[in-house]
Each structure stands twice: as C-alpha cells, then as structure tokens.
C-alpha cells in the first residue's frame, strides 16, 4: 500500500504546479542535509522548487514554512515572523522575547523538524544579517533533529561561513537555470510548439531564467503562433524585476553595465561612478544575473542576450541620458587605452560626431583592416549630411559590409604601417588629379579612399579585400569622365595583387591594359608595375624573366614595395641563378627581413624565399634557424614543408602542406606549391595514386594561372616520372630557362657516368657511403671512389653542395 503523501505545510503560496524544476535540485533537497541554502534572483524558481519537493517527498519530517516580509529587515521582526510560523509545531503563542523563545524551542525540540525560511534576503537587512545567520547555524549544530532550508536572492554569511560549520548543500543559480531540455519539456506541457534546437536557443537567449521563459512561452502558446518566445513579455518581466529592486545603486549598476556587450571590473568602475562597484558586481554575479567568462586579460562579465536587450530597452525608454553618459565614459576609457575602434564606436553612439571624424582621420587605415565591419556599422550611424560631405564615410557606407568583409571571426593582427608608401601614393594621385580635375572633385576623393583601403589591405595580407578595393577604385575612376588618368592606380594595384597571389596570367593581362605616361614611370605606379611584371614573369618561367628582373627599379624607401622587389630577385635567383648568385641573395634577404614589421605579408614572402634559397645553397641548418624565428609559425608553414622534403621527412611534408591547403587565407601561389610538395612526397614514398592526384591538381593550377616555377620544388626526376611522357605537361617544366653551369669535356653533369649518376641519385636518400652501398649492392670502398669522382666533376666538396647542384640541374 502506498505511503500517504504529507500535506503541504501551512503558509505556502499558491503557485502553478507545472513549473520545470531540474532533477538535481529536487535530489539535493531530498538528501535532507542539516542545512540547505537556495540562492537565486527573483523568478529563478526557488519557491516553486520547494513546493514541488514538498509534493514528492513523503518521508520528510514535520515541516514548518516561513515566508519573510519586510518586517524581518530588523532582527526582532525576523524572530517574530519565525515564531508565528513555529506555532504549528508547538511553540507557545505570545511572549515579548521572540528570539529567546524560538532559539530555545529549536535547540531542545526532541523530534525531527524541518524549518523552511523563504525570502531569506529580507532577514536583518537593515541591522546585522550575520548575527541571524550565525544563530541559525548554531541551532543546527546543537540539535541533530533540526533541519533548516533557507531560500533567498543574495549571498549571505549562512552560505559562506555557515556551510563550513555544518554538513550543508548549496543550490545556486547555475543549478536552478533551465537547460534546453528543460525548456523543451516545459514548452510541451504548456502547449508551445518548440523544436529542441529552438528550446536550446531560448535557454541561451534568456540565460535559463525560469520565470522569464515560462512567461514568454505562456503567451506564445496562448495566441497559437509558432513563435518560440514572446520578447515583449520577457522584456516587461525584466523591467518589472528592475523596478522592484529596493536599492537604487543596484538598479543603476544593472542598467549601466547592460549597455556594453561585456565588461570587466575596471570598465564597471568607469561607468558606475557611485557605490562600491566591486561589491555590487559580486552581489549581481552571485545572484545569477550575469555570466562570468575567464580570459587571458582576466574575468569578463555579460548578460544573457534577451536580458541585456530588455535592460537596454528600459534605458532607452526611461533614461535615455544614461546611455549617452555611459558611452562618454567608455569613450574616455578607450582613449586612455589607445583603442581607436572603440573610441569611434562610443563617440558615434554618444553623438560626438567631431570626435568620431577625428578618429577616422587619424586611424583610417588601421580601422579599415582591423575592424572593417565595425567601421561600416558606425559609418551608417552618422547623419546623412556628414556622410555626403566625407569621402571616407561614403566608402564605409557603400562598401564595408558582410558581403565584402568576411564574418569568420579571424583574429586580425596589427599589420605594417607604411607612411612613406601612403604618402607616395597620395602625392602621385594628387599630381594626376591636379592635371585632370578641379580641386576637391568628389569622385577623386572617393577613389583615393578606395586606393588607400586597397594598399592597407594588401600590406596586411588581406589580398581578396585588396582586389575588391582596387577594382572599385578603378571603376569609380572610369565612371568619372575626368578620372581616366587616375584609373591606372586601380589597374596597377590589381596587377600587383594578382602577381602576389600567384596568378601571373591574370597579372600580365592587367598590365597589358596599363598605359603609363612618361611621368608616371618614375613614381609609385612605375615601380609597382615593374614588380608585378617581374614577379609574374618569374612565376611563369617566362623567356623575358631575366630582362624584367634586371629592369626592377632601385627604391630609396625601405618599404614593403622595396621588399617585394627583393623577393622577386631572390625568387628568380633560386630558379635560374648560379650557386654564387643564390648565396649572395640570401644575404640580401636576411638584411631585408630586418626592415619589416614582424608578422607581415612581406616578411612571410621574404622568409619563404630565403628558406628556399638556403636549401638550394646547401645550408639547411641555417634554414632551420630562420623558420624557428618566425612567429606565428603558420606564416611559414610552406617553408616547413619545403624543409621537410629536403630532409626526406615525407610525413611532415604531408602534414604541413595539408594544413596550408585547409587554410582560409590560401592563395594560388601556396596552393600550387603545396600540391607539388605533396606530389613529390607521395612519389618518394611509392604512393602512386595520391602522387598522381596531387600532381594532376598542380598541373591544372599551372594551366589556369600560368605558374610554372613551383614544379622545380619536386625535382626533374619526379616531374618527368609523373608527367608520363605527356608532351603538354612536360613543357610546363621551368628548367629550359635556367642557367646552366659552364661545362668542359671532363667536368659537369655531362661528364658523369651512369654509375655516378645512380650514386648521386642515391645520395639524396642516404647520408653516406655505407647506406648507398647497401641500397645499390656495392662495396663501401667502391661507393667512396665513385663519390670522389662525382664531387670532382661537379666542382663541389660535400654532399650538400652536390645535392644543391643536382637540384639546380633538375
């Protein structure tokens, strides 16, 4: 026979019985700890949890329930309210000293008694809450028949120090929050149509706040609409909670800290000028109203999305001046921290348009690359007359949005600032404008901003965005009847970026459209065009590569364009130069890297070709040192793959090359190099199918882009083997245009016998005569004799130099 269910204790409120209470909360209450503390903000289901526990707990002892009121804000009032509740358990009614009567009764009560005190945050609020808490803990310690459960909204001594004195359990806001599954079950009971994914989203948006969720779900189920949650009901619920707060400082803290998306203690002190900010933050955090997130810079705090939305709406409807005041404070904070994007954002939101324009003027290029989406968003806040007057604002409004700028959340490092390069672009552009258009011509101003965006993006390695900016600058110039002369800037930028990306055919096509006047050849335009033409020619292993590289101008400024010219010369030397040429260029490359900002695109390009040159010169140890110095390592992952191939670490080749191919910033240059490296690694490990697949992809890229140079990375032997006598593919080999070392009748590769060639090939896989002898079935002495002959004929002195000479000959 089922045991009869004990009735609910007297005095409990009438609440809906369909509340969703987490099972873990009910299990904790059913464990009957001597002391149980339930803490959570209003509407977190504290009382509902108690009532549901009363209904499902047949074995609980005699239960007394006391719901405190504001009378308990003083000590005498607290003991009086508890005394009234205890009369049902036998405490005599009456008496002037309620405290003495209650404590004596609870200390000596001989039978199990469960005392539940709800709204504990009211106890001793205006006197000494710690004295009340200490007295309750002492009673529990001295009477093993007494069980106490307290539920309230704030952190109290009974939770912090009391739980150290007696066996206790704490149910905090994290325990009371509804999860996605809990929201789904509640919605089913209320008749609201929610999928599990929608239920999870509701839980996230509302921070698991039980009553707020239930209020929204009740409304959505009542009108029959398929909406997941009624936002208006939720916002009214939160507003009511804020209005009911008794302390103005707490209310001000909530409203002010909801304006930024997240904050830390320092920011909170900046925007909440009154009260003990640290204590307010702790209390709000302990009440479960905000989330804490650990970062490398320390804890950060934020509200659940829908809760923050409700608080911000309340600020805008009832205290609009508060939002402006907070943004002013945040703007000053960002100025001290030298964070121009945040200064711009808060200045615009505070209506400080002059300050926002100052930031645009001073930090335009940095904002373009580091915070383009924010820049576009803020530009759309400006009044229309200001946008119409400012070319930068018009560019931000028209071009900076999610369709152009990726929303992938990539971390954007601070790239190079190149004042000399910007000044040169500005000077030559201004000269052309003065000769073709009236001063202050609107279209030319917009074009200049777009060109600056293209230059900044290219310097920061955002090549796709640079292409977009240069193409838009060219289009604006061509649409402007007076801007055809300045369209050459956009065309030159397109050619240079395509060349950097490893698309020589496209770069040369843009260069073919370029018509530079004599005066333009000597400036930034001529230098950029020369670098683009030389780089495209070297990548394509063109017959004019020697000529175009020799024509590269010498720049006086040690800027990124000068670094690109150094890269092109080194790129060509590794492909077609002698060993002396390669050794010389490695010194030039190492010197050039010192002029560049760490982590820039130019540094990566120079480092890549420096590693390749060092390997070609037989200096693998130095190449290792160069790669180890670069941070972050993913900038030179292709170099790591080249180094691994040189050392026959084929698994490492595959690992590094595959990581590059998975990168979101992959260019055609790196894509083809990685395919060639993979083909070489798979060929060396006898994985014919995978080698053919990688090689075919590389061939396809070569035919699409015009690149031929990367094939030299795999060596002529592997290339010929994978080309399989296909004449069209064999013609892609870049070797015919490479310089051959002087040959005599008895020296050079032509003088090597077939046995010596076989030993030289085996030397690539074995470090010494013993390994070669075992591989070829010869004696070690015979191999030594043959190696001496190989070194003599090739005019080298060791294995590294012999292999370098062999690579240069394909």
From TrEMBL:
Database matches in InterPro entries: AAA_22, P-loop_NTPase, Sig_transdc_resp-reg_C-effctor, Tscrpt_reg_LuxR_C, WH-like_DNA-bd_sf, WHD_MalT
Matching SMART domains: HTH_LUXR
Membrane-traversing stretches: none
Entry keyword set: DNA-binding, Transcription, Transcription regulation
Molecular function in Gene Ontology: ATP hydrolysis activity; DNA binding
Gene3D superfamilies recorded: Winged helix-like DNA-binding domain superfamily/Winged helix DNA-binding domain (1.10.10.10)
SUPFAM superfamilies registered for this protein in UniProt: C-terminal effector domain of the bipartite response regulators (SSF46894), P-loop containing nucleoside triphosphate hydrolases (SSF52540)
Record keyword DNA-binding present: yes
GO BP terms in the entry: regulation of DNA-templated transcription
Annotated ranges, domain HTH luxR-type: 745-810
Domain of life: Bacteria
Pfam families listed in its UniProt record: AAA_22 (PF13401), GerE (PF00196), WHD_MalT (PF25873)
The name this protein goes by in its record: HTH luxR-type domain-containing protein
Native source organism of the sequence: Ruania alkalisoli
The organism's taxonomic lineage, starting at the top: Bacteria, Bacillati, Actinomycetota, Actinomycetes, Micrococcales
